[in-house]
Specification:
The protein has helices at about 15-30, 50-65, 85-100, 100-105, 135-150, 160-165, 175-180, 185-190, 205-240, 335-355; strands spanning about 40-45, 70-75, 110, 115, 125, 245-250, 255-260, 265-270, 275-280, 300-305, 315-320. About 40% of the residues lie in helices and about 20% in strands.
Length: about 375
């Protein structure tokens, strides 16, 4: 899950209010997701100031030393810099990197969004224009996330650790950097007696609090579903080529992941009544979840033999159409589709072994 939070330094919203919105969301999902990292977005024209220094101190308090390797500083608007000013921009970036050195020295990354990175993840001088190179810019970001966050032993940010220990938002280290007061005091200062059952003029309801209260009864089941599917995709991803990409979507059957293999083959993975399913996404499908998809309601479980990394034979599970012993009937005989089917079987086997389940369903 990728969450785009409100930005700090907004004249229309105080930093304290922004942080509280972030904290409310973390409270909503803290027991149901793994916090993979923080992307700190930085506009290249930003000058160092007291506010910028305060925000960095807040980021240190929010992440803590243990989560520093999971931070990526993402600089933006490189395509807005004219050629004559590029040297000055690079010099300014070095100055900012010195301000971020406490993070970088602990393993944090810097990614210059809008610059082209080669296949080894090395930055080049080529600038990608947003109107011309939009698709390539998106692919570059996906590759960056793969490089920086794949195969890591994730650690909760310091703020999340403190919340899980039972501390209130206002008493966390990050909140103290912003000088926050308790919510009870804030509400008391803002409250005035009502003269009738209707809210007074100018009253603005807290829609996030209302939404959170409505979601509370179902959030655990919802997040368990996402967590289990994400865990399965993580296993699956480990058996696929390095350049494979994936992203989530909401399809007609619910939550799905689109897997894109290095040569362009796209495959959809999700869950249904019988457990995990997968089907190839043909060109005519596009990304429209309302289009007709292959029927998987009657899929059963079959066995295939795959070789593990030691050259030994292992038994893995894969879904077969109508209970037959043939490969997935909707998949073709291309190398990538056969490679995916084998990876699907191994991933499903791994998750079944870990969970001790014979069905590997998402509950």
């Amino acid at each position: 899950m990728f969450v785009d939070t409100p930005g700090f330094g907004d004249a229309k919203c105080s930093d304290e209010d922004v942080f509280r919105q972030i904290a409310d969301f973390i409270d909503l999902v803290q027991n149901s997701v793994i916090f993979a990292g923080v992307l700190y977005v930085h506009r290249m024209e930003t000058e160092f100031s007291t506010d910028a220094e305060r925000l960095l101190r807040w980021l240190k308090a929010f992440c803590g030393n243990d989560h520093a390797p999971f931070v990526t500083f993402v600089t933006t608007r490189w395509d807005a810099i004219v050629e004559d000013e590029m040297e000055d921009a690079v010099y300014k970036l070095r100055e900012w990197e010195s301000e971020w050195s406490d993070f970088i020295d602990r393993g944090a990354h810097v990614y210059n969004h809008g610059k082209f990175y080669d296949g080894n993840g090395q930055e080049t001088s080529r600038i990608l224009k947003i109107r011309v190179d939009g698709d390539e810019r998106a692919r570059q970001v996906q590759n960056m996330i793969t490089r920086n966050y794949r195969h890591k032993r994730y650690v909760d940010p310091q703020f999340v650790k403190e919340i899980k220990q039972g501390r209130s938002v206002e008493t966390t280290t990050a909140a103290q950097i912003l000088g926050m007061t308790t919510r009870a005091i804030i509400l008391a200062d803002q409250s005035t007696p009502f003269t009738s059952g209707a809210p007074e003029p100018g009253y603005k309801p807290n829609w996030f609090e209302m939404l959170k209260s409505l979601l509370m009864p179902v959030r655990q089941a919802f997040w368990n579903t996402i967590t289990t599917l994400s865990e399965f995709v993580k296993y699956l991803y480990s058996f696929l080529p390095t350049e494979t990409l994936f992203w989530p979507r909401f399809g007609r059957r619910g939550i799905e992941f689109v897997i894109q293999m290095p040569m362009g083959t796209r495959i959809v993975v999700g869950w249904g009544k019988e457990g995990f399913f997968a089907y190839p996404q043909r060109d005519e499908d596009n990304d429209d979840p309302d289009l007709e998809n292959p029927d998987i309601d009657n899929w059963d479980v079959g066995d295939i033999e795959t070789d593990d990394s030691n050259g030994e034979t292992m038994e893995a599970q894969y879904p077969s159409a109508d209970g037959t012993d043939q490969m997935l009937s909707d998949f073709g005989d291309t190398n990538e589709e056969r490679q995916f089917v084998a990876a699907f079987g191994r991933a499903r086997h791994e998750l079944m072994e870990e969970r001790g389940s014979s069905e590997c369903r998402i509950m």
